[in-house]
Specification:
Layout (H helix, E strand, L loop, with lengths): L8 H13 L2 H8 L3 H15 L4 E4 L2 E4 L1 H21 L11 E7 L1 H18 L3 E6 L6 H7 L4 E4 L9 E8 L1 E6 L10 H6 L1 E5 L9 H7 L6 E6 L2 H9 L4 E5 L9 E4 L8 E7 L7 H16 L1
Helix pairs in contact: 1-2, 1-3, 1-4, 2-3, 5-10
Length: 298
């Protein structure tokens, strides 16, 4: 770097926005500046780092190797500065900020419902925006600030993200209280019954249960695939379909009977993931701790 004195905080924020957006126009909109102003800042950044930083292509601005190497350090520096500007002691009862969280409908019911109740009691000034999980955009959403955290499984975590385990989940069989098999069934009955399952996005009629059955050389009869766990529970209450669902989903669901599956089915883990930019932020640290506490109580 040839001219450290010319590299002020606004230039770092501009570089961060350019790296995230890949466009001078979109970076300007994000920073609430004019396009010529951001173009001028890019010129100063190039002089300071003695590197083009970006080259133009049909897809917009493509970062150079030097720019790519700066992306994470800049996120870290800006996050630490934001943390420094916060009050020395975070006071939940008087805090006012907006929190953006991505979660599936399963996590919304099992994790976010009790979290929101806790926030309303302890930090009523916190607004929460709940978004669906978009696996293809998750890394960008967390890095750019579109999301503050995401509740996902470990296989959705990208390198460089922070993550904290929330709990381990297991599967159970669910059917209506007065189902003909409400008192139990063996593996043959299980395979012969009509099943419903949740398939997020692709309408598949197979899932983790079918993989477990295949290991035994068996198959079940799946007649319904739906995109939502909440929709599935309502269908089970009004039909003779059965389903294999995560156990936490039905802890308080009336009208349903819960049985152990007649075949071992691998469970999964839920984690909360966040980016380096919020890692040291007092408010976000407090919310993540509250989230862990809520999951331990559930």
């Amino acid at each position: 770097m040839r001219n450290l004195r010319s590299l002020d905080l606004n230039l770092l924020r501009a570089l961060d926005a350019l790296l995230d957006e890949g466009s001078v126009t979109r970076a300007a909109e994000r920073l609430a500046l004019t396009q010529p102003a951001v173009s001028g800042m890019l010129t100063r950044l190039r002089e300071s780092f003695d590197d083009p930083l970006f080259v133009r292509s049909q897809r917009g601005l493509v970062p150079t190797v030097r720019a790519q190497s700066l992306a994470l350090p800049i996120k870290r520096v800006l996050g630490e500065i934001d943390g420094m500007l916060q009050p020395p002691e975070f006071v939940p009862g008087t805090a006012e900020f907006t929190l953006s969280i991505a979660a599936t409908d399963y996590a919304q019911r099992t994790i976010l419902v009790p979290l929101l109740a806790a926030l309303r009691e302890e930090a009523p000034g916190v607004r929460v925006s709940v978004r669906p999980v978009d696996g293809l955009r998750l890394e960008h959403q967390l890095a750019s600030g579109e999301l503050d955290m995401a509740i996902v499984t470990p296989d959705s975590i990208y390198p460089g993200l922070h993550a904290r385990p929330l709990y381990d989940e297991q599967y159970v069989c669910v059917l209506r209280d007065h189902h003909p098999n409400a008192d139990g069934f063996d593996l043959d009955d299980f395979c012969a019954l009509d099943h419903a399952l949740v398939s997020l996005g692709n309408g598949s009629f197979e899932g983790v249960t079918d993989e477990a059955l295949a290991g035994l050389g068996r198959k079940r009869h799946v007649v319904l695939s739906v995109p939502s766990f909440l929709m599935l529970l309502e269908i089970l209450r009004g039909s003779d379909l059965i389903a294999v669902v995560p156990k936490r989903l039905i802890q308080t669901s009336d009208g349903l009977r819960v049985l152990d599956p007649p075949v071992p089915i691998p469970g999964f883990q839920k984690v909360v993931a966040w980016h380096e930019r919020t890692h040291h932020h007092p408010a976000h640290q407090w919310v993540r701790a509250l989230l862990s506490t809520v999951c331990e109580r559930s």
